[in-house]
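Handout, page 2. Input:
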Amino acid sequence: MKSLLNASIVFENHHSPDFLTQLLDYLQIEQHNRFVYQFENSKGKGQILSTEIEQGFEVELLQLQLNEDLHIRPTPSEENTRWNVSICNDYLYTKELAEITSNNYPYCVVLSSSSVSNARIFPANRPIFSFSLTFSKDWIETNIIQDLKEEPAERLNEIIQSNEPIFMIDNIDVDLHRIVDTLLNEDLYQQNTKLLFYRTALDLTLIFFKKLINKSIFIPTNQNFKKRDIQKIHEINEAILTDLSKPCPSIEELSKSVGMSTAKFKTLYKAIFNNSVYNYHLNERLVQARKYLQSGKYTINEVAYMVGFNYPSSFSRIFKKTFGQSPLQFMGLHYEEGQDE
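Output:
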């Protein structure tokens, strides 16, 4: 039997050039252009996008499928000089590290410092997705903390000034999933979409630090939520999302169906999804509506009814408020893009 240890790379933690050099060497990848790498060989196939936006702010996107397990083994630094924020498949970390309950999005968000030694496994024959931002401590202080009010600045400063190994992992929510959706549905490997890649990296930076400061991510385990209760919330949420053409049930109906008080249900749902049931359901309907419109197969009225709106005018108003353009403008934009291809 082949040892799992046969395929591994060791690198200085959160030092992108070192990790990239080791990974390219293992995968036998030749450079495609100055920051894009593509391969299809005996190791597998995939694409890597890695660049430095500015000093102290590095970005990396991995989309791979390998033919054998690859163990990623970081060498920790003595101090927390760099910090990494990643969105990746929730199966890249072991269950011992990732004690999270699966939700509708098969991805997790991770915050880790350069002094941690937690390994990852890129499993064979499974899609591997990882979008990572690496920040120096100086960059966070200059570009994030400096502009915050006193209380959130103190909270973030307390985290980055620590020299203890810090590793936090959580489910992604609808906001972070939009980042994933952009990365999966746009061709970021074309040179003319470099600005889109930069914008997506900045979007994740803004959304992530806002959630971290507002304490709406990495919910402490001392809140004593029972795992079975968390599972019930996820199960009822999946049931709600099964048919988006139906109105969202009331809090009273939902809490009764899982045997909780309305207060407990609302608290637990908010803690897990960082949103109310109504707003989460509405966001999902609008995201699905955007996909229907983008397909070009349906009229605006048809899409409105398909995602549970009784009045197309209400749908158009809320769509514009959410995405910054009306359904008609959105359809026109994607029609023009299709004509240009």
